[in-house]
Amino acid sequence: MRRSKPLAIIAGAALLTLAACGGSGGTPAGGKTRTASAAAETIAKDPSRAAPAADITGAKQGGTITVFLPGDPGPNSLDPTEGWSVTGNSIQQALTSRSLTQYARDPASGEMVLVPDLATDLGTPNADFTEWTFTIRKDAKWEDGSVITPEEVAWGITRSMDSTTFPGGPGTEYSQTYFKGAGTYKGPYTDKGKKWDGISFDDAAGTVTIKMAKPFPDMDYWGAFMAMGPAPLGDASKPPDYGQHIMSNGPYKVESFRPNEELVLVKNDQWDPNTDPARHQYADKWIIKFNQDQDKVDQIMLSDNTESKTSLTNAIGSNNYQRANTDLGDRLVQQSAQCTSFLAPDYTKITDINVRKALAYAYPYEAVWLASGEVPGVTRVPANSIMPPGMAGKKEYFADGEQFTFNPDKSKALLKAAGYEPGQYEISMVYYEADPLAVAAQKQLVQGFEEAGFTVVNGGYPVQVSPYDIWLNPDDKLNKKLNLRGVNWCSDWPSALTMLPPLVKTGATYNTEHFSEATVDATIADIPNMPLEQQAAAWGALDEKIGTEFFPIIPTAFRNDLYAFGTSIGNGVGDGQIGAPDYKDIFVAQ
């Protein structure tokens, strides 16, 4: 699942548990030591979790919650089939759009637990995990009061097979890999009129059955994605219009949506807590503000004024971290999840591994982090692998024998070994001009690259849209010029199955480096067929092989997030599974 904040892509954002490394979040003068709430290596399952969700201690009804998202454009579309970003998914899955399964936060441990959602349990597989059946609740409703049917759930899942219509959606990786017909059936909009026999439904029995192309024991985890939820039948959910006017089935519905600016949600009076084992509906309204200025948000959250009291943010800038760490107390929450951030040299253009390693030594890690508002050692930790610490099977290795740090001399030596003198090798990239912190980070990056022997064409190309909009469009003229891109990636569930294939498999949507090696593809195909107890170690070995033999993608950071909550926000905690505030359980203290 991608992080959608563009400056984080350039600044090397990713997620990690510092606690798993044996470290803490650091202790600024006069502040408190902060240790991240660690992301779990495994997630517990509770297939019998019943609705309604237990009340949060002290929770109150009413009020408006404002969410400030600095430098983050948010989703372009609210279509559940398209959702594959931390920002969009964390908000929508918690508040507007239900799926087969979901996560609930255990109040005792703070860890997320996989529980039922629209399904009555976590699904029933056959003996070899090539078929899964889910029984759908009979009393969950759309915002218009109509009951959600198994046919609508089956239709929503069928839409996820359409990678042409939803090229950035998660179905491109999971439905089009594991569901029957993967690679041949192209979805209902691309293969118009063609029937798909990979799914069936029985409205009378209330069941949906999905057939697999290969064993898929993780279907219950995949079921927690919005793409594994219902959609109104036929033209009512026709893209792209549906993404601007979705039908809610969660506790909130959309009052207004202005992409890149604001999303306003109000109570959905057709949502029944007695059908939902995890969500709550405490606040009257949510106002989510995208693309906010980090410094302005910091000042709001530190002011404790009327606006601040009922607000929260998913970031605090480095300039204000020390004060926030001292003043906010427990309202400043450090949260980890399993994510890594990367620079992605184009494997078809930057073909010499020495040049790719030179880029790793040319990246001015701490200077970029500070310029982009991050806190080295707190929200950013140097990375050494694709898999983040805390992920089962991760191996400790270094692609060049040591941790990559900013080292211009080593970069120049590697460029010379590849046949280039200082200034000869040109890098072509974009940066997100709409965010001042992204601009500041780009200046530091260019300075570091040029000091290390590279030339950055035009100082980078400024863009007003998310860089993902450029990177993921093979027909984009600017994208064709680039030889350096990026990607931030968080695990979709606690398995390297959701880390490595989406980033390095030939043709994968978020393989922005265009890496392609037959031996790697073959291993990716083989590992899911191994005994379950062998798979984690096999993924770790593949990670090391990719890094040491090919080094196609440069891990720049593991990441902690910092969330700040206003004094009137109740139960301000993080969701370690997705790496965002726990929107399901937040309320306004009246």
Descriptive tags:
590 residues; alpha+beta; Dipeptide-binding Protein, domain 3; D-Maltodextrin-Binding Protein, domain 2; 2 domains; nine-stranded mixed β-sheet; four-stranded antiparallel β-sheet
Blueprint of the fold:
Layout: H1 6-11, E1 44-45, E2 64-70, H2 86-95, E3 101-105, E4 112-116, E5 124-125, E6 131-135, H3 150-159, H4 175-178, E7 199-202, E8 207-211, H5 219-222, E9 252-258, E10 262-267, E11 285-292, H6 294-303, H7 306-309, E12 311-313, H8 318-327, E13 332-345, H9 353-362, H10 365-371, E14 380-381, H11 408-417, E15 425-427, E16 430-432, H12 436-451, E17 454-456, E18 461-463, H13 467-471, H14 477-481, E19 484-490, H15 500-504, H16 518-526, H17 532-550, E20 554-565, E21 569-570, E22 574-575, E23 580-581, E24 587-588
Helix pairs in contact: 6-8, 9-11, 10-12
In a few lines, what is going on in this structure?
By secondary structure, the chain is α+β, with helices and mostly antiparallel strands. The chain contains 17 helices and 24 strands. The two termini are 35 Å apart.
What's the Cα radius of gyration?
A: 23 Å
By helix and strand content, what is the structural category?
alpha+beta
**CATH fold assignment of the largest domain:** Dipeptide-binding Protein, domain 3
Q: Give the integer mean of the pLDDT values.
A: 92
In one word, what is the shape? Answer: globular
Low-confidence runs = 6-31, 33-38
How many extended strands? Answer: 24
The helix count comes to: 17
CATH superfamily of the largest domain: Dipeptide-binding Protein, Domain 3
How would a crystallographer describe the biggest sheet?
9 strands, mixed
Task: Report the sheet-strand fraction.
Answer: 15-25%
